[in-house]
Amino acid sequence: MNSRKSYQHFEHDNLSTTLSGSKNNWNHSLFDNSFNYNNQYILDLSHTFLEDLSGLVDFPFLKALILNNCSLTNKAISTLPELHHLETLSLNKNELYDISLTCEHIKSSCPNLRHLSLHLNPICPDELSETFNLSYDYERYRNYCIRKIPTLAFLDSSPVTLKEKMYANNIIN
Prior knowledge:
This is C10orf11 homolog. By secondary structure, this protein is α/β, with parallel strands linked by helices. It has a single domain (about 15-170), classed as Alpha-Beta Horseshoe (Leucine-rich repeat, LRR (right-handed beta-alpha superhelix)), CATH 3.80.10. The chain is about 25% helix and about 15% strand. It has four helices and nine strands.
C-alpha cells in the first residue's frame, strides 16, 4: 500500500520520517494543516530558494535538516528557530559570509547539533583551492567552528577529534 501524498510540491511518506521539498520556492504556508509535521525527523529542502527559516518552527522534532544550495544568507540563518532535537545540519553551497554570526546563531538555535557541513560557502575555505594558506585557513576555520559550537562531533567531511577540541578551546577566547 502506497501512502505517499503530495502537498503542492512537497511529498511525505506516512511510513517514514522524511519530507522533501527540493527545487521550489519554499514557504511554510504551503504545508497542508491536515498533516502532522511534528513527526518529521528529516527535512531536505535542497535547491530551494530560501529567505526565511522561521517556518521550521512547525518541525520541532527534526533530527536532520538539509538546506544545500538554497541561496541562504546570514540574514536567513538568523531566522532559524530553536530546534532542540536537531543533530545534523547541512548548509553546503549557500551564501554565508559571516562565520561569527553563522556559528552563534546555529549554536543558539541548535543546542544539540552534532554534525555540521558548511562546504562551498564563502566562510569555508575551499579544500580544492590551490592557495598558499589553504591548510592554515581551513584549520583556523575548523578551530573557530569547533570552539563556537562545542557539541560538534563532525564538521564538513571529517570527525572532530579530541585534539582539535582541546586546541580550539585553548587558542580561541
